[in-house]
Amino acid sequence: MPHHDSVPPTSRPGPRRRPVFTAAALAGVCLTAAGCAGDGGPEPGAAAGTATRPAASPAPPSPASSPSPSPRQSSAAAPGPSAGSTSSRPLPRGPLTGRTVVIDPGHNPGNRDHTREINSQVDIGTGRKECDTTGTSTNAGYAEARFTLDVSRRLRTLLEEQGAKVVLTQDGDRAFGPCVDERARIGNGAKADAVVSVHADGSATGNRGFHVILPAAVKGGEADTAKIVAPSRELGVRIAGNFVRVTGSAPSNYIGGGTGLDTRDDLGGLNLSTVPKVFIECGNMRDPEDAALLTSAGWRQKAALGVAEGIGSYLKR
Length: 317
Fold this sequence. Notes:
Elements: H1 23-27, H2 29-32, E1 85-86, E2 100-105, H3 115-118, E3 121-123, E4 128-130, H4 144-160, E5 165-168, H5 180-189, E6 194-201, E7 211-215, E8 219-220, E9 223-224, H6 229-247, E10 261-264, H7 268-271, E11 277-284, H8 288-294, H9 297-315
Helix pairs in contact: 4-9, 6-9
């Protein structure tokens, strides 16, 4: 996900990353975190504000790579500011009844046709960055924006089955975006109990695995993450542990020192959040082995389940 608001810069100094767990420890999170077991249901760095990964070139739809159809998908007209997209069907009662989760599918397939709009600058509290970017793609052309929307829809279904109210920041229902500042506002406006931004990386061949990006302590302009740093880390640790367990994927071998965790202070989507929020980079689209997973519908379902069980573990703790 080559976007300025999600690309983890590997060239940044070590203190930005805070190793806490080994891969084995992450896999063992479900053995130690209350309610985790059986909950049921980053590219080498770019300068700030610069997207260096290749623009996504969506491939023709195929059974293995097309996002799941959504009854809410409509025309290119954008919804009102900070509205998000919610289900209209009644929710069952379950262990997550009364909880609100915001899922943020990274990028938008239409971004590539709206370069002027997504290159416009927005305030991220500590400075200004582009509204959004196109995202990356596999070498065969499967776009990150399609991946993120597919996984997010699967994740919504899993969470709604447990009674959670789920809001998507976009559901293929707007021409581009939303911008990173609006993505944060949607979570804030929903008073979400947890927000997860879904992405996939676009790093070099041989760089494999997932990582979860956590907010650093940031204060400046509209940004003040003091109240969300600790709960966001708890959310991220539980997602990472469950992601290992459910998907079998290892933590990133190029970001986070083997912990599967990376702390950043340059992402508007995190800086402007007032509710617990993390990003997850599910794998590296530019590595053939990771790409084979990311383009598999079966693996994407596992990815959604791993994230859902991490969120459920966090909310039921």
